[in-house]
UniProtKB/TrEMBL annotation:
InterPro entries: Glyco_transf_N, UDP_glucos_trans, UDP_glycos_trans_CS. Pfam families: Glyco_transf_N, UDPGT. Keywords: Glycosyltransferase, Transferase. Its EC number is 2.4.1.-. It comes from Tagetes erecta (African marigold). This is Glycosyltransferase.
Length: 501
Protein backbone atom coordinates (compact mmCIF):
# COMPACT_ATOMS: atom_id res chain seq x y z
CA UNK A 1 0.00 0.00 0.00
CA UNK A 2 1.26 3.49 -0.88
CA UNK A 3 2.15 5.72 2.06
CA UNK A 4 0.08 8.92 2.48
CA UNK A 5 2.23 11.97 1.58
CA UNK A 6 3.61 13.82 4.60
CA UNK A 7 1.59 16.88 5.59
CA UNK A 8 3.23 20.30 5.49
CA UNK A 9 3.42 21.91 8.91
CA UNK A 10 2.71 25.57 9.73
CA UNK A 11 3.81 26.65 13.20
CA UNK A 12 2.18 29.81 14.53
CA UNK A 13 3.70 31.99 17.24
CA UNK A 14 1.13 34.59 18.41
CA UNK A 15 1.88 37.35 20.89
CA UNK A 16 0.32 36.83 24.34
CA UNK A 17 -2.83 38.95 24.03
CA UNK A 18 -6.46 38.19 23.30
CA UNK A 19 -6.37 40.52 20.26
CA UNK A 20 -3.50 38.46 18.78
CA UNK A 21 -4.32 34.88 19.83
CA UNK A 22 -7.84 34.95 18.40
CA UNK A 23 -6.89 36.31 14.93
CA UNK A 24 -4.16 33.65 14.75
CA UNK A 25 -6.74 30.98 15.54
CA UNK A 26 -9.06 32.35 12.84
CA UNK A 27 -6.11 32.36 10.42
CA UNK A 28 -5.49 28.68 11.24
CA UNK A 29 -9.15 27.86 10.51
CA UNK A 30 -9.06 29.80 7.26
CA UNK A 31 -5.88 28.06 6.15
CA UNK A 32 -7.45 24.66 6.76
CA UNK A 33 -10.48 25.76 4.80
CA UNK A 34 -8.15 26.28 1.82
CA UNK A 35 -6.01 23.21 2.39
CA UNK A 36 -7.14 20.31 4.61
CA UNK A 37 -3.84 18.64 4.11
CA UNK A 38 -1.86 20.82 6.51
CA UNK A 39 -0.87 20.44 10.12
CA UNK A 40 -1.00 23.67 12.10
CA UNK A 41 0.51 24.05 15.56
CA UNK A 42 -0.16 27.12 17.66
CA UNK A 43 2.54 27.68 20.26
CA UNK A 44 2.05 29.75 23.41
CA UNK A 45 2.12 29.79 27.19
CA UNK A 46 0.10 27.16 29.12
CA UNK A 47 -2.79 29.44 30.11
CA UNK A 48 -3.21 30.84 26.60
CA UNK A 49 -3.13 27.31 25.20
CA UNK A 50 -5.88 26.30 27.66
CA UNK A 51 -7.96 29.29 26.50
CA UNK A 52 -7.39 28.40 22.86
CA UNK A 53 -8.39 24.81 23.59
CA UNK A 54 -11.72 25.96 25.06
CA UNK A 55 -12.24 28.38 22.17
CA UNK A 56 -11.78 25.48 19.73
CA UNK A 57 -14.04 23.21 21.80
CA UNK A 58 -16.79 25.86 21.62
CA UNK A 59 -16.85 25.67 17.83
CA UNK A 60 -18.50 22.92 15.82
CA UNK A 61 -16.36 19.86 14.93
CA UNK A 62 -12.86 20.74 16.20
CA UNK A 63 -10.38 20.02 13.38
CA UNK A 64 -7.78 17.32 14.07
CA UNK A 65 -5.17 19.28 12.08
CA UNK A 66 -4.92 22.10 14.67
CA UNK A 67 -2.43 21.26 17.42
CA UNK A 68 -1.62 23.30 20.51
CA UNK A 69 1.83 23.38 22.07
CA UNK A 70 2.34 24.94 25.51
CA UNK A 71 5.77 26.35 26.34
CA UNK A 72 6.86 26.77 29.96
CA UNK A 73 6.22 30.26 31.34
CA UNK A 74 5.89 31.46 34.90
CA UNK A 75 4.64 35.04 35.14
CA UNK A 76 5.91 35.55 38.70
CA UNK A 77 9.50 34.97 37.46
CA UNK A 78 9.06 38.23 35.51
CA UNK A 79 7.64 40.32 38.34
CA UNK A 80 4.07 39.84 37.08
CA UNK A 81 1.06 38.67 39.14
CA UNK A 82 0.48 34.87 39.20
CA UNK A 83 -1.11 33.46 36.02
CA UNK A 84 -0.53 36.64 34.01
CA UNK A 85 0.18 35.10 30.64
CA UNK A 86 -1.63 37.61 28.47
CA UNK A 87 -2.44 41.29 28.60
CA UNK A 88 -5.93 40.78 30.08
CA UNK A 89 -6.24 42.62 33.34
CA UNK A 90 -2.68 44.00 33.33
CA UNK A 91 -1.76 47.63 33.87
CA UNK A 92 0.17 49.57 31.19
CA UNK A 93 3.52 49.03 32.91
CA UNK A 94 2.78 45.33 33.42
CA UNK A 95 1.94 45.06 29.71
CA UNK A 96 5.43 46.38 28.94
CA UNK A 97 6.81 43.85 31.43
CA UNK A 98 4.95 41.05 29.63
CA UNK A 99 6.40 42.22 26.31
CA UNK A 100 9.88 41.90 27.79
CA UNK A 101 9.06 38.53 29.34
CA UNK A 102 7.79 37.15 26.01
CA UNK A 103 11.41 36.95 24.83
CA UNK A 104 12.07 34.16 27.36
CA UNK A 105 9.90 31.85 25.26
CA UNK A 106 12.65 31.79 22.64
CA UNK A 107 14.69 28.95 24.22
CA UNK A 108 11.80 26.46 24.61
CA UNK A 109 10.50 27.49 21.16
CA UNK A 110 13.91 26.75 19.64
CA UNK A 111 13.90 23.35 21.35
CA UNK A 112 10.44 22.61 19.95
CA UNK A 113 11.42 23.63 16.41
CA UNK A 114 14.54 21.51 16.64
CA UNK A 115 12.39 18.45 17.46
CA UNK A 116 9.91 19.21 14.65
CA UNK A 117 12.64 19.78 12.09
CA UNK A 118 14.50 16.61 12.98
CA UNK A 119 11.39 14.49 12.55
CA UNK A 120 9.75 16.31 9.61
CA UNK A 121 12.60 17.99 7.69
CA UNK A 122 13.23 21.68 7.06
CA UNK A 123 11.38 21.94 3.74
CA UNK A 124 8.11 20.76 5.33
CA UNK A 125 8.01 23.40 8.07
CA UNK A 126 7.02 27.08 7.98
CA UNK A 127 6.90 29.47 10.93
CA UNK A 128 4.51 32.43 11.14
CA UNK A 129 5.55 34.79 13.95
CA UNK A 130 3.58 37.65 15.35
CA UNK A 131 5.36 40.93 14.58
CA UNK A 132 5.74 41.31 18.36
CA UNK A 133 7.56 37.95 18.49
CA UNK A 134 10.09 38.82 15.76
CA UNK A 135 12.70 36.48 17.29
CA UNK A 136 10.63 33.62 15.85
CA UNK A 137 12.00 34.67 12.43
CA UNK A 138 15.57 34.31 13.72
CA UNK A 139 14.81 30.85 15.12
CA UNK A 140 13.33 29.87 11.73
CA UNK A 141 16.39 31.16 9.89
CA UNK A 142 18.79 29.31 12.15
CA UNK A 143 17.07 26.02 11.21
CA UNK A 144 16.71 27.01 7.55
CA UNK A 145 12.90 26.85 7.62
CA UNK A 146 10.51 29.25 5.85
CA UNK A 147 9.39 32.20 7.94
CA UNK A 148 6.76 34.93 7.69
CA UNK A 149 5.42 37.64 9.99
CA UNK A 150 1.83 38.32 10.90
CA UNK A 151 0.31 41.53 12.19
CA UNK A 152 -3.01 41.40 14.00
CA UNK A 153 -3.36 45.16 13.34
CA UNK A 154 -4.34 46.97 10.17
CA UNK A 155 -1.94 48.28 7.53
CA UNK A 156 -2.20 52.00 8.36
CA UNK A 157 -1.87 51.39 12.10
CA UNK A 158 1.05 48.97 11.68
CA UNK A 159 2.89 51.28 9.27
CA UNK A 160 2.47 54.33 11.51
CA UNK A 161 3.38 52.36 14.64
CA UNK A 162 6.59 50.99 13.16
CA UNK A 163 7.61 54.20 11.43
CA UNK A 164 7.00 56.39 14.48
CA UNK A 165 8.64 53.94 16.92
CA UNK A 166 11.69 53.63 14.65
CA UNK A 167 12.11 57.21 13.48
CA UNK A 168 10.74 59.19 16.38
CA UNK A 169 9.74 62.00 14.02
CA UNK A 170 7.68 63.66 16.74
CA UNK A 171 10.78 64.66 18.67
CA UNK A 172 12.77 67.76 18.03
CA UNK A 173 16.19 66.32 18.69
CA UNK A 174 17.73 69.78 19.18
CA UNK A 175 15.74 70.67 22.28
CA UNK A 176 14.11 67.33 23.18
CA UNK A 177 10.64 68.89 22.91
CA UNK A 178 7.82 67.43 20.87
CA UNK A 179 6.34 68.82 17.66
CA UNK A 180 2.58 69.35 17.68
CA UNK A 181 2.34 68.18 14.11
CA UNK A 182 4.80 66.13 12.09
CA UNK A 183 5.31 64.03 9.00
CA UNK A 184 5.74 60.28 9.42
CA UNK A 185 8.33 58.76 7.06
CA UNK A 186 6.60 56.55 4.49
CA UNK A 187 3.29 58.50 4.59
CA UNK A 188 2.47 61.20 2.01
CA UNK A 189 3.63 64.73 2.98
CA UNK A 190 -0.01 65.85 3.08
CA UNK A 191 -0.87 63.29 5.76
CA UNK A 192 0.15 65.12 8.94
CA UNK A 193 0.19 63.34 12.29
CA UNK A 194 -0.47 65.12 15.58
CA UNK A 195 1.30 64.40 18.81
CA UNK A 196 -2.14 63.54 20.23
CA UNK A 197 -2.36 60.64 17.74
CA UNK A 198 0.56 58.97 19.54
CA UNK A 199 -0.06 56.82 22.65
CA UNK A 200 1.54 58.03 25.85
CA UNK A 201 4.45 55.63 26.38
CA UNK A 202 5.52 55.96 22.73
CA UNK A 203 5.17 59.76 22.89
CA UNK A 204 7.81 59.72 25.63
CA UNK A 205 10.27 57.49 23.77
CA UNK A 206 13.52 59.21 22.87
CA UNK A 207 15.22 56.35 21.07
CA UNK A 208 17.56 55.62 23.96
CA UNK A 209 15.20 54.35 26.64
CA UNK A 210 14.65 50.64 27.32
CA UNK A 211 11.36 50.38 25.45
CA UNK A 212 12.49 52.35 22.39
CA UNK A 213 15.30 49.85 22.10
CA UNK A 214 12.98 46.89 22.67
CA UNK A 215 10.49 48.10 20.02
CA UNK A 216 13.25 48.91 17.59
CA UNK A 217 14.86 45.51 17.88
CA UNK A 218 11.48 43.75 17.75
CA UNK A 219 10.42 45.52 14.58
CA UNK A 220 13.80 45.24 12.86
CA UNK A 221 13.74 41.44 13.39
CA UNK A 222 10.67 41.36 11.17
CA UNK A 223 12.66 42.84 8.30
CA UNK A 224 14.23 39.39 7.97
CA UNK A 225 10.93 37.64 7.18
CA UNK A 226 9.97 36.55 3.67
CA UNK A 227 6.62 38.32 3.80
CA UNK A 228 3.91 39.77 5.98
CA UNK A 229 0.37 38.56 6.52
CA UNK A 230 -1.84 41.48 7.52
CA UNK A 231 -5.22 41.29 9.25
CA UNK A 232 -6.90 43.67 6.84
CA UNK A 233 -8.82 43.94 3.58
CA UNK A 234 -7.12 45.26 0.45
CA UNK A 235 -10.09 47.43 -0.59
CA UNK A 236 -10.57 49.29 2.67
CA UNK A 237 -6.98 50.22 3.52
CA UNK A 238 -5.65 51.58 0.25
CA UNK A 239 -3.34 54.26 1.69
CA UNK A 240 -2.18 52.14 4.63
CA UNK A 241 -1.20 49.29 2.33
CA UNK A 242 0.63 51.55 -0.06
CA UNK A 243 2.68 52.92 2.83
CA UNK A 244 3.27 49.51 4.39
CA UNK A 245 4.38 47.96 1.10
CA UNK A 246 6.74 50.85 0.30
CA UNK A 247 8.13 50.78 3.80
CA UNK A 248 8.62 47.05 4.29
CA UNK A 249 9.59 46.11 0.70
CA UNK A 250 8.41 42.53 1.20
CA UNK A 251 5.22 40.86 -0.05
CA UNK A 252 2.16 41.79 2.03
CA UNK A 253 -0.87 39.48 1.92
CA UNK A 254 -4.14 40.96 3.21
CA UNK A 255 -5.96 38.02 4.78
CA UNK A 256 -8.47 39.79 7.01
CA UNK A 257 -10.73 40.27 8.63
CA UNK A 258 -9.90 37.44 11.02
CA UNK A 259 -13.18 37.46 12.87
CA UNK A 260 -15.63 34.55 13.27
CA UNK A 261 -17.06 33.55 9.87
CA UNK A 262 -20.62 33.82 11.15
CA UNK A 263 -20.16 37.59 11.47
CA UNK A 264 -19.32 37.66 7.79
CA UNK A 265 -22.04 35.41 6.43
CA UNK A 266 -25.19 36.80 8.01
CA UNK A 267 -26.84 39.94 6.74
CA UNK A 268 -25.75 43.23 8.23
CA UNK A 269 -27.40 43.82 11.65
CA UNK A 270 -30.20 41.49 10.72
CA UNK A 271 -31.51 39.73 13.78
CA UNK A 272 -31.31 38.96 17.45
CA UNK A 273 -29.33 35.96 18.66
CA UNK A 274 -26.72 35.37 15.98
CA UNK A 275 -25.22 32.03 16.95
CA UNK A 276 -21.87 33.87 16.95
CA UNK A 277 -20.15 33.23 20.23
CA UNK A 278 -18.03 35.59 22.29
CA UNK A 279 -16.91 32.76 24.55
CA UNK A 280 -13.65 32.60 22.64
CA UNK A 281 -11.61 33.89 25.51
CA UNK A 282 -12.75 31.64 28.33
CA UNK A 283 -13.94 34.83 30.11
CA UNK A 284 -16.83 35.04 32.51
CA UNK A 285 -19.63 37.13 30.97
CA UNK A 286 -20.93 39.99 33.12
CA UNK A 287 -24.47 39.46 31.82
CA UNK A 288 -26.54 36.54 30.61
CA UNK A 289 -26.69 36.81 26.82
CA UNK A 290 -30.47 36.15 26.87
CA UNK A 291 -31.02 39.15 29.15
CA UNK A 292 -28.96 41.28 26.84
CA UNK A 293 -30.87 40.20 23.71
CA UNK A 294 -34.22 40.60 25.40
CA UNK A 295 -33.25 44.19 26.19
CA UNK A 296 -31.86 44.81 22.69
CA UNK A 297 -34.99 43.28 21.11
CA UNK A 298 -37.09 45.93 22.85
CA UNK A 299 -35.30 48.71 20.94
CA UNK A 300 -35.80 50.03 17.43
CA UNK A 301 -33.28 49.42 14.68
CA UNK A 302 -29.97 51.33 14.93
CA UNK A 303 -30.83 53.22 18.11
CA UNK A 304 -28.51 51.77 20.78
CA UNK A 305 -24.95 52.85 21.58
CA UNK A 306 -22.56 50.04 22.58
CA UNK A 307 -19.54 51.06 24.68
CA UNK A 308 -16.46 48.94 25.33
CA UNK A 309 -12.74 49.64 25.55
CA UNK A 310 -11.59 46.10 24.72
CA UNK A 311 -9.76 43.53 26.77
CA UNK A 312 -6.79 45.57 28.01
CA UNK A 313 -7.62 49.26 28.24
CA UNK A 314 -9.70 51.26 30.63
CA UNK A 315 -10.41 54.96 31.12
CA UNK A 316 -9.60 56.97 34.25
CA UNK A 317 -11.85 57.37 37.28
CA UNK A 318 -12.73 60.98 36.37
CA UNK A 319 -13.35 60.04 32.73
CA UNK A 320 -15.72 57.31 33.89
CA UNK A 321 -17.78 59.85 35.81
CA UNK A 322 -17.70 62.24 32.79
CA UNK A 323 -18.85 59.47 30.46
CA UNK A 324 -21.66 58.38 32.78
CA UNK A 325 -22.94 61.96 33.00
CA UNK A 326 -22.73 62.36 29.21
CA UNK A 327 -24.67 59.14 28.63
CA UNK A 328 -27.40 60.28 30.98
CA UNK A 329 -27.48 63.68 29.31
CA UNK A 330 -27.78 62.10 25.83
CA UNK A 331 -30.90 60.14 26.85
CA UNK A 332 -29.93 57.53 24.24
CA UNK A 333 -30.17 53.80 25.00
CA UNK A 334 -26.80 52.20 25.67
CA UNK A 335 -24.92 49.07 26.73
CA UNK A 336 -21.77 49.99 28.61
CA UNK A 337 -19.15 47.37 29.49
CA UNK A 338 -17.68 48.80 32.68
CA UNK A 339 -14.22 47.69 33.79
CA UNK A 340 -12.22 49.01 36.79
CA UNK A 341 -10.81 52.44 35.95
CA UNK A 342 -7.11 53.00 35.35
CA UNK A 343 -4.99 52.44 38.46
CA UNK A 344 -7.37 49.92 40.08
CA UNK A 345 -6.99 46.14 40.14
CA UNK A 346 -8.22 45.20 36.66
CA UNK A 347 -9.56 41.92 38.05
CA UNK A 348 -11.17 43.59 41.09
CA UNK A 349 -14.84 43.77 42.04
CA UNK A 350 -17.10 46.59 40.92
CA UNK A 351 -17.19 49.64 43.20
CA UNK A 352 -20.29 51.89 43.12
CA UNK A 353 -18.17 55.04 43.64
CA UNK A 354 -16.72 54.64 40.14
CA UNK A 355 -20.05 55.88 38.77
CA UNK A 356 -22.01 59.00 39.77
CA UNK A 357 -24.18 58.51 42.86
CA UNK A 358 -27.47 56.78 41.91
CA UNK A 359 -26.42 56.42 38.21
CA UNK A 360 -27.22 52.70 37.84
CA UNK A 361 -30.72 53.21 39.29
CA UNK A 362 -31.45 56.34 37.27
CA UNK A 363 -30.46 54.74 33.94
CA UNK A 364 -32.29 51.45 34.57
CA UNK A 365 -34.70 52.15 31.74
CA UNK A 366 -32.18 53.91 29.48
CA UNK A 367 -29.26 51.48 29.47
CA UNK A 368 -27.55 48.30 30.53
CA UNK A 369 -24.39 48.49 32.63
CA UNK A 370 -22.44 45.24 32.18
CA UNK A 371 -19.58 44.64 34.57
CA UNK A 372 -16.39 43.06 33.19
CA UNK A 373 -17.03 41.25 29.92
CA UNK A 374 -19.92 41.35 27.44
CA UNK A 375 -20.86 39.13 24.50
CA UNK A 376 -19.54 41.78 22.09
CA UNK A 377 -19.92 39.83 18.86
CA UNK A 378 -23.56 39.00 19.50
CA UNK A 379 -24.28 42.57 20.61
CA UNK A 380 -22.75 44.11 17.49
CA UNK A 381 -24.70 41.68 15.30
CA UNK A 382 -27.98 42.89 16.77
CA UNK A 383 -30.07 45.13 14.53
CA UNK A 384 -30.70 47.68 17.29
CA UNK A 385 -27.02 48.69 17.62
CA UNK A 386 -26.54 52.10 15.99
CA UNK A 387 -22.99 53.06 17.04
CA UNK A 388 -19.99 51.72 18.92
CA UNK A 389 -17.98 53.90 21.33
CA UNK A 390 -14.67 52.06 21.12
CA UNK A 391 -10.95 52.34 21.86
CA UNK A 392 -10.48 51.46 18.17
CA UNK A 393 -8.72 48.15 18.85
CA UNK A 394 -8.43 46.52 15.45
CA UNK A 395 -10.67 43.53 16.19
CA UNK A 396 -13.39 45.79 17.54
CA UNK A 397 -13.08 47.97 14.42
CA UNK A 398 -13.63 45.02 12.07
CA UNK A 399 -16.36 43.52 14.24
CA UNK A 400 -18.19 46.85 14.10
CA UNK A 401 -17.68 47.59 10.40
CA UNK A 402 -18.61 44.04 9.40
CA UNK A 403 -22.07 44.91 10.82
CA UNK A 404 -22.20 48.38 9.25
CA UNK A 405 -21.91 50.04 12.68
CA UNK A 406 -20.09 53.44 12.73
CA UNK A 407 -17.70 54.24 15.56
CA UNK A 408 -17.11 56.91 18.14
CA UNK A 409 -13.38 56.75 18.83
CA UNK A 410 -11.58 56.97 22.15
CA UNK A 411 -8.09 55.54 21.55
CA UNK A 412 -6.32 54.38 24.71
CA UNK A 413 -3.12 52.57 23.73
CA UNK A 414 -0.70 51.12 21.15
CA UNK A 415 -1.70 51.86 17.51
CA UNK A 416 -5.30 52.86 18.33
CA UNK A 417 -4.70 56.59 17.72
CA UNK A 418 -3.57 55.82 14.16
CA UNK A 419 -6.53 53.47 13.63
CA UNK A 420 -8.87 56.25 14.74
CA UNK A 421 -7.16 58.75 12.41
CA UNK A 422 -7.54 56.36 9.49
CA UNK A 423 -11.20 55.62 10.32
CA UNK A 424 -11.96 59.37 10.38
CA UNK A 425 -9.82 60.63 7.48
CA UNK A 426 -9.70 57.70 5.08
CA UNK A 427 -13.01 55.97 5.71
CA UNK A 428 -15.37 58.57 7.21
CA UNK A 429 -16.87 56.02 9.61
CA UNK A 430 -15.73 57.50 12.92
CA UNK A 431 -15.79 60.64 15.05
CA UNK A 432 -13.15 60.93 17.78
CA UNK A 433 -14.70 61.89 21.13
CA UNK A 434 -11.63 61.71 23.38
CA UNK A 435 -8.09 60.39 23.50
CA UNK A 436 -5.98 58.53 26.07
CA UNK A 437 -6.31 59.01 29.80
CA UNK A 438 -5.88 62.78 29.85
CA UNK A 439 -8.94 63.99 27.86
CA UNK A 440 -11.61 65.72 29.93
CA UNK A 441 -14.94 66.07 28.18
CA UNK A 442 -18.11 67.74 29.32
CA UNK A 443 -21.39 65.87 29.52
CA UNK A 444 -22.77 68.29 26.90
CA UNK A 445 -20.00 67.40 24.42
CA UNK A 446 -20.42 63.66 25.01
CA UNK A 447 -24.16 63.97 24.53
CA UNK A 448 -23.70 66.07 21.37
CA UNK A 449 -21.37 63.52 19.73
CA UNK A 450 -23.60 60.57 20.65
CA UNK A 451 -26.63 62.37 19.19
CA UNK A 452 -24.75 63.27 16.00
CA UNK A 453 -23.66 59.70 15.35
CA UNK A 454 -27.01 58.10 16.22
CA UNK A 455 -28.94 60.65 14.15
CA UNK A 456 -30.71 58.78 11.35
CA UNK A 457 -31.98 61.86 9.46
CA UNK A 458 -31.19 61.45 5.78
CA UNK A 459 -28.10 63.37 4.66
CA UNK A 460 -26.93 64.23 8.21
CA UNK A 461 -23.51 63.21 9.51
CA UNK A 462 -24.77 60.12 11.40
CA UNK A 463 -26.63 58.90 8.34
CA UNK A 464 -23.57 59.42 6.10
CA UNK A 465 -21.29 57.62 8.57
CA UNK A 466 -23.71 54.69 8.71
CA UNK A 467 -23.84 54.49 4.92
CA UNK A 468 -20.04 54.46 4.75
CA UNK A 469 -19.85 51.81 7.49
CA UNK A 470 -22.40 49.74 5.58
CA UNK A 471 -20.33 50.07 2.38
CA UNK A 472 -17.23 49.02 4.34
CA UNK A 473 -19.18 46.03 5.69
CA UNK A 474 -20.05 45.05 2.13
CA UNK A 475 -16.41 45.32 1.00
CA UNK A 476 -15.36 43.22 3.98
CA UNK A 477 -17.90 40.51 3.09
CA UNK A 478 -16.92 40.58 -0.56
CA UNK A 479 -13.25 40.13 0.39
CA UNK A 480 -13.89 36.75 2.01
CA UNK A 481 -16.09 35.34 -0.77
CA UNK A 482 -14.90 31.90 -1.79
CA UNK A 483 -12.80 31.92 -5.00
CA UNK A 484 -13.61 35.60 -5.64
CA UNK A 485 -12.74 37.78 -2.66
CA UNK A 486 -9.37 39.54 -2.36
CA UNK A 487 -8.63 38.13 1.11
CA UNK A 488 -9.67 34.65 0.05
CA UNK A 489 -7.39 34.79 -2.99
CA UNK A 490 -4.51 36.34 -1.03
CA UNK A 491 -4.55 33.49 1.47
CA UNK A 492 -4.66 31.00 -1.39
CA UNK A 493 -1.67 32.71 -2.98
CA UNK A 494 0.22 32.68 0.32
CA UNK A 495 -0.44 28.97 0.83
CA UNK A 496 0.71 28.04 -2.66
CA UNK A 497 3.92 30.04 -2.23
CA UNK A 498 4.89 29.78 1.42
CA UNK A 499 6.84 26.53 1.17
CA UNK A 500 8.94 27.64 -1.81
CA UNK A 501 11.98 29.86 -2.16
N1 LIG B 1 -14.38 41.59 23.71
C1 LIG B 1 -15.53 40.92 24.11
N2 LIG B 1 -16.22 41.41 25.19
C2 LIG B 1 -15.82 42.51 25.89
C3 LIG B 1 -14.66 43.19 25.46
C4 LIG B 1 -13.96 42.71 24.36
O1 LIG B 1 -15.93 39.91 23.51
O2 LIG B 1 -16.50 42.87 26.85
C5 LIG B 1 -13.61 41.05 22.56
C6 LIG B 1 -13.94 41.81 21.29
O3 LIG B 1 -15.04 41.19 20.63
C7 LIG B 1 -12.64 41.72 20.50
C8 LIG B 1 -11.57 41.62 21.57
O4 LIG B 1 -12.23 41.27 22.78
O5 LIG B 1 -12.63 40.53 19.73
C9 LIG B 1 -10.83 42.93 21.76
O6 LIG B 1 -9.92 43.09 20.74
P1 LIG B 1 -9.51 44.52 20.21
O7 LIG B 1 -8.50 44.31 19.14
O8 LIG B 1 -10.70 45.29 19.83
O9 LIG B 1 -8.90 45.24 21.45
P2 LIG B 1 -7.77 44.82 22.51
O10 LIG B 1 -8.49 44.14 23.61
O11 LIG B 1 -6.79 43.92 21.80
O12 LIG B 1 -7.22 46.14 22.93
Amino acid sequence: MEEAPQRKHIIMLPYMAQGHLIPFLELAYNMLHHNHNLNITIVNTPLNITNLRSAIANRPSPPSQIHLKPLPFNSTDHGLPPNSENTNGLSASQIMQLLKASVTLEAPFRQFISEVVSSEGTSMVCIISDVLMGWGIFVAKSFGVFSYSFTASGAYGSAAFVSISQNLPHRNMADGGTYDEFHVPGFPETCRFKITDVAQPIRDFDGKDEFSRLFKSKSSMNHESKGLLCNTVEEIEVLGLEVLRNYRKIPVWCVGPLIPPKMLTKNLGSDTSSGVTSQRSGKQLGIQPEKCFEWLDSHASRTVLYISFGSENTISETQMIDLAKGLEESKKPFIWVVRPPFGFDPKGDFRPEWLPFGFVDRVKKQGLVVYGWAPQLEILCHRSIGAFLSHCGWNSVFESLSQGVPLIGWPLGSEQGYNAKMLVEEMGVCVVLARWLDSRITKEEISRVINVVLDKSVGRKGDLMRKKATEAGELIRAAVEINKGSSYNALNDFLTRCFSN
